[in-house]
Amino acid sequence: FRIMAGKVKWVTDIEKSVLINNFEKRGWIQVAENEDWNFYWMSVQTIRNVFSVETGYRLSDDQIVNHFPNHYELTRKDLMVKNIKRYRKELEKEGSPLAEKDENGKYIYLAADYNLFVEEFRKNPSSTWIMKPCGKAQGKGIFLINKLSQIKKWSRDSKTSSFVSQSSKEAYVISLYINNPLLIGGKKFDLRLYVLVSTYRPLRCYMYKLGFCRFCTVKYTPSTSELDNMFVHLTNVAIQKHGDDYNHIHGGKWTVSNLRLYLESTRGKEVTNKLFDEIHWIIVQSLKAVAPVMNNDKHCFECYGYDIIIDDKLKPWLIEVNASPSLTSSTANDRILKYNLINDTLNIAVPNGEIPDCKWNKSPPKEVLGNYEVLYDEEMAQSDGSDRDLRGRSGQATGAKGNRARDTGKPVLTTWK
Question: Which candidate, 127, 359, 375, 408, has a CA 20 to 30 Å from the CA of 169?
Answer without folding.
Answer: 127
